Amino acid sequence: MLASSPSADVSINNDQNRFELRLNGDLVGIVGFFEVEGNGTRATHTHVVSFMHTVVTEDFGHQGLAGILVRRALDSARSYGWKVRPVCSYVQRFAAANPEYNDMLVAL
């Protein structure tokens, strides 16, 4: 399965505090987050969330899926008006390589 496949879907799971990457409906990756400060519901008006960890199952590693997952999670966070504290080392490296996200990042 190619990472650019149209069957790759990233959505938020508020109950589990994570963004989920699914391929053909199967969960293959997550970005876990933790609300640091905010108000309102998690999907709106949250001020700062920490992206704690990025995980892609071993069978789907080394296909670029973590990058797709983090990019879409950051894009979603931006659409919600969130600021992101990149605790996860993968998110830190991704953000360093993609400066278009600098305006929404909060220092550790």
UniProtKB/TrEMBL annotation:
Report the top EC class in one word. transferase
Keywords from the UniProt entry: Acyltransferase, Transferase
Q: State its Enzyme Commission number(s).
A: 2.3.1.-
Instruction: Kindly name one Pfam family recorded for this protein.
Output: Acetyltransf_CG
Record InterPro entries: Acyl_CoA_acyltransferase, Gcn5-rel_NAT, GNAT_YJDJ
- Domain of life (superkingdom): Bacteria
Domain N-acetyltransferase: from-to ranges: 11-106
Q: Which GO terms describe its molecular function?
A: acyltransferase activity
Please report the name of this protein according to its UniProt entry.
GNAT family N-acetyltransferase
Organism for this UniProt entry = Rhodococcoides yunnanense
